What we know:
This protein has 188 residues and is mainly beta.
Amino acid sequence: MRYLLIILGLSLQLGLAQAQDNIGLRLFGLSIHPHSERENASIMPLRLDPEAYLVQNLGAILSYEKFIYRDLFSAKLALALYSDCAARLGGFVHLGLRGRIFQFRRHSFYGGLGPTFIFRRNWLEIEAYKDQKLFKGSRDDRYQYLFLWYGGEFEYHYRLSERLDAILSLIPGYPDLMSLSVGLNLRL
């Protein structure tokens, strides 16, 4: 990690970051549970099927991306607030390194990885909830949390103009949860 920070600092000082930094706003939309959430489906009011394979989430993700090397590598900070699967307040803070996987004309695809702190209003307060022992926190805590060293995302970008991209984002939390969101990135 120390060497990564040194490389980041040197690349910024040497002027290698030639791409435009950007800010993004995505609307949170859909959670996909690859394995049925049958045991907790009853506490998910916005599920789209009886076993909660698909659950609608409402919220937003705000991000800032700083390019490290041309338009190939960047560091990204993302902050999110949303209504989680149980329609309770949730969110995350993510800081990661990203790379462009491919670009063809107006189409680009990026992947990133980095630490992510996730929080949600305590589900242990919900009488019908069957605890899966994934989130930390006791019944008396207002919020539960989860820290992942390896949180990541994949993003598809479609260039609308020189400064604006439409994006579709997938957060691959397999096997527990995958999330989809759509939005815009504005190059600064």
